[in-house]
Amino acid sequence: QVQLVESGGGLVQAGGSLSLSCAASGDIFFYTMGWYRQAPGKQRELVADTISGGTTNYADSAQGRFTISRDNAKNMVYLQMNSLKPEDTAVYYCNANNLRRTYWGQGTQVTVSS
Fold first, then answer.
1. Contact 46, 34 (CB under 8 A)
2. Beta bridge partners of 70
3. Cβ(46)–Cβ(36) below 8 Å
4. What is the signed CA dihedral for 57, 67, 3, 29, rounded to 10 degrees?
């Protein structure tokens, strides 16, 4: 039903910024959209998510530095990351979920150098 493709990852120095994009192949109106990340040897964790109406939720580690947004008409989700820290280094995954289904993107690597 929905395929998700992330883009925008890369290498950035600590204190820098990076913007991630997630393009969905289908209608995301009925899905909560989120960004998760997984660092080497660590569990996957929620970074931020947003319901269709735009209400957002952030992990404590992301609060104040990251901003999630969505454009339902374009089936796009974004994650603006500012003041990046080395501990933000991870593979970032786009996620779509509702009561029936969950979809994952392939992930995009974000590396923050000290």
1. yes
2. 77
3. yes
4. 60
